[in-house]
Design a protein that fits this description.
- The complex is a heterodimer.
- Helix content of chain A is about 75%, strand content about 0%.
- Chain A has one domain: ABC transporter involved in vitamin B12 uptake, BtuC (Orthogonal Bundle).
- In chain A, strands 1-2 form a two-stranded antiparallel sheet.
- By secondary structure, chain A is mainly alpha-helical.
- By secondary structure, chain B is an alpha/beta fold.
- Chain B folds into two domains: about 150 residues, Response regulator (Rossmann fold); about 170 residues, Response regulator (Rossmann fold, 3-Layer(aba) Sandwich).
- In chain B, the strands form four sheets. A five-stranded parallel sheet of chain B has the order 2-1-3-4-5, sandwiched between helices. Chain B has a four-stranded parallel sheet with strand order 7-6-8-9, with helices on both faces.
- In chain B, helix 2 links the parallel strand 1 and strand 2.
- In chain B, helix 13 packs across helix 14.
- The relative contact order of chain B is 0.11.
- Chains A and B meet through helix 2 and helix 11 of A and helix 2, helix 8, helix 9 and helix 11 of B.
């Protein structure tokens, strides 16, 4: 561990800005995926182990649209929407049947879907990795230099898109009727049913939204990373870490935890480049010990 | 009295069943007999995930060679049967597949097309069983360089780290002189091959061009999707040059992501695994002037045999061969030659038939365009190693310079002595 290297980095504007920008990009992409996971758990009480597979589907769907249209924006949006629709069908056909089942049953169901999807994408798109979507031409420009820090404009775009999604999600959850119903479903679904609200529609809508967010994360990740079967596994683990740190079911917690993880990875790479993964788990362990409900979670969870 | 029907239902059923069985056996028996008579070769490999390119291109090369062999009559009518299985790049799965090949499928030989981590696992399995094994992918030198790991029944047809390191370092030393590259970094996948490649390259570079400085090393996990941490480290340190043994989809992602930072505008990249068609064609905007070894390109060696091989493979599969393709092709060529020489599948006789042998090859640069299997460590030498710079379109490489095998073997001896492996 090189604590002096970290100190030198923090007092250097170039290093500080560069690492902070990198951390923000990592964190915000992670938030997109983790927010979907925590939303589904918070409202439906389901730990969706297939969430990483939905991220992978987002990458594949967006790649497919890109190969047909050549339009980046359309590819990302349609890719994410496609996963949203898939999530809706997945929830109606399968997940809804295990809401009250044992956790092991939920895990087995989700893991089966992961294995099926991992093989299905290879059958449809081939065993070979697919090249990334590439970035729009408008971003194929020299990087920004801010106090000697190098920041690719496309990274700023990813951060901005993720932030906008975060705002929209907050608005939906707190300012709309749908959001009220979602929160009510999370608190007391039986009461809501007694009042004549069809909670099945709410649940399906929430799962669809969670899937859309995972798909959006996958589509944006595919802009810079090759697309391959099984690519959702690593992001799933990180999403769970974010969910645990932030608090299960807390979107604001997921936001805070994502930023913490992003910065930990980025600045951690300066001081202890061989331990960045371990650092993530260390933070999670500390939170579990000191505040088991997570940073923004409720004690009962 | 009830008349007894001569042609009772039971009798008809019995007769019909007997006839059908006889017919089935008479048709299928030759097929069963033929299948049991086949020369079985087990091929554990990677057919999925980010490096599926490895297993696919190995399978293509093997199938092409085996089909030709079988069509020309096989070994006195005996065909080679390839049994190719996916280990999903997991060492424990590779070992399990290998044991299955040996114990259940009763294969006559194994062509191991696993990456380094799994190859060591396979080596232990075949050492125990005595099954003939041809390693055609792993490039970690230790697999054959370390005497404690060698086995009489294991042959290496894959290029190895120390050979590439000497070839790479000699080329890099020339570029260092031309462009004054004093500050270096490296980015290598964090597993046996990456560690070995890094270690041997800088060891060899020190011999050709001492006095360079290593600013830092990045060790991303194999198959890691996001290289931001490593790339910001490079942006911070501003090296003159980077050495990388990343490969396949990992290398493509790294180059695409690093390009956003303009890394290659001021830093020379020496990416030993770049010049494979699948990799180069997948990079979104391949920067000009990156340096790579000639993993497999149709333009190198610049021979008709090589061009013919590329054409045959491409016409059959619609894709160019890869580095793994040629290694598998040379391996199966040696095995077929040994089968013809010995007339059977006795593994000891086959091993003797391959050991120390020189054969003409489209990838050979020995006298008469040959490669050889060295006696001592049963590993391939005199295969083509070149380095050049990349261009955006086919043939993807230019200014290719051949490595010198005398220099390679000389420095290899020094390296082995340093490791106490002589």
């Amino acid at each position: 561990m090189d604590i002096f290297a970290l100190f030198d980095c923090i007092i250097s504007p170039a290093c500080l800005i560069s690492q902070a920008a990198g951390g923000l990009k990592i964190g915000m992409l992670l938030f997109l995926v983790a927010s979907g996971l925590t939303l589904v758990f918070g409202v439906l009480g389901v730990i969706n182990f297939a969430h990483g597979a939905l991220y992978m589907l987002g990458a594949y769907f967006s790649w497919q649209v890109m190969s047909v249209t050549g339009h980046f924006g359309l590819s990302v949006i349609l890719g994410a929407l496609g996963v949203g629709i898939f999530g809706l069908l997945f929830e109606r056909a399968l997940i809804s049947r295990v809401y009250n089942a044992d956790l092991l049953v939920q895990i087995l169901l989700c893991y089966s879907i992961v294995l099926i999807l991992d093989d299905l994408v290879m059958i449809i798109w081939g065993d070979e990795f697919l090249s990334s979507l590439g970035i729009p031409e408008v971003f194929q420009v020299p990087p920004l230099i801010i106090f000697d820090a190098i920041i690719p404009p496309f990274h700023l775009a990813i951060i901005t898109i993720s932030f906008i999604v975060c705002i929209i999600l907050w608005f939906i959850m707190t300012k709309t009727k749908f959001g009220k119903l979602v929160r009510a479903t999370a608190n007391n679904p039986k009461m809501l049913e007694a009042l004549g609200v069809n909670t099945n529609i709410i649940k399906a809508g929430v799962f669809m939204l969670g899937s859309f967010l995972a798909g959006l994360g996958g589509a944006l990740a595919a802009s810079l990373s090759s697309v391959v079967s099984g690519m959702g596994n690593s992001i799933l683990i990180e999403s769970f870490i974010v969910t645990v740190i932030g608090g299960m079911g807390s979107i604001s917690g997921a936001f805070l935890a994502s930023l913490i993880i992003g910065m930990a990875r980025s600045f951690g790479a300066v001081a202890m480049p061989l331990f960045t993964d371990g650092l993530m788990f260390l933070i999670m362990v500390l939170v579990l010990i000191l505040r088991p409900q997570g940073l923004m979670g409720n004690k009962k969870q | 009295m009830k008349k007894i029907n001569k042609y009772s239902r039971r009798k008809i059923l019995k007769t019909g069943t007997a006839a059908a069985s006889a017919l089935t056996l008479s048709v299928s028996f030759p097929t069963i007999l033929k299948a049991e008579n086949n020369i079985k070769i087990g091929v554990p490999t990677i057919l999925s995930g980010r490096v599926a390119q490895l297993g696919i291109s190995v399978s293509n090369a093997l199938n092409m060679a085996v089909d030709n062999f079988n069509k020309s009559g096989g070994l006195d009518g005996r065909n080679i049967e390839l049994i190719i299985r996916d280990s999903r790049a997991k060492p424990d799965e590779a070992a399990r597949v290998c044991r299955d090949f040996i114990n259940s499928e009763k294969v006559d030989a194994i062509i191991n097309a696993e990456a380094s981590g799994a190859s060591f696992a396979v080596q232990e399995v075949i050492r125990e069983s005595g099954t003939l094994c041809l390693h055609t992918v792993s490039e970690t030198s230790r697999l054959t360089a370390d005497p404690s790991i060698r086995a009489w029944n294991a042959f290496r047809f894959s290029r190895q780290g120390i050979h590439d390191a000497v070839g790479s370092a000699r080329y890099a030393a020339k570029i260092i002189k031309e462009k004054v590259l004093k500050k270096w970094m490296s980015v290598n996948p964090d597993y046996a091959y990456g560690r070995d490649s890094d270690d041997t390259f800088f060891w060899a570079l020190e011999k050709f061009s001492p006095g360079f400085e290593i600013l830092g090393k990045g060790w991303p996990k194999i198959f890691q999707p996001d290289y931001t941490e490593v790339i910001t480290q490079i942006a911070r340190e501003k090296p003159d040059a980077i050495y990388s043994s990343l490969w396949g989809g990992d290398l493509v992602s790294f180059i695409d992501q690093a390009s956003l930072y303009g890394i290659f505008n001021n830093t020379q990249l020496f990416a030993i695994n770049l010049a494979d068609y699948t990799t180069m064609s997948a990079v979104k905007n391949l920067p000009k002037g990156l340096h790579s070894a000639t993993r497999y390109v149709a333009a190198w060696p610049n021979t008709q045999d090589n061009r013919d091989y590329d054409n045959s493979y491409t016409n059959l599969y619609g894709d160019h061969p890869t580095n793994w393709s040629w290694e598998a092709a040379v391996g199966i060529d040696y095995l077929i030659s040994a089968l013809k020489e010995t007339g059977g599948t006795d593994n000891k006789k086959l091993a003797e038939a391959m050991k120390g042998k020189t054969r003409k090859s489209f990838m050979g640069v020995g006298d008469g365009n040959t490669v050889s299997i060295r006696d001592k460590d049963q590993t391939i030498i005199d295969y083509s190693i070149g380095w050049g710079t990349t261009i955006a379109n086919d043939p993807y490489m230019t200014n290719i310079q051949a490595a010198d095998w005398n220099t390679i073997e000389e420095l290899e001896k020094k390296w082995l002595a340093d490791k106490d492996w002589l």
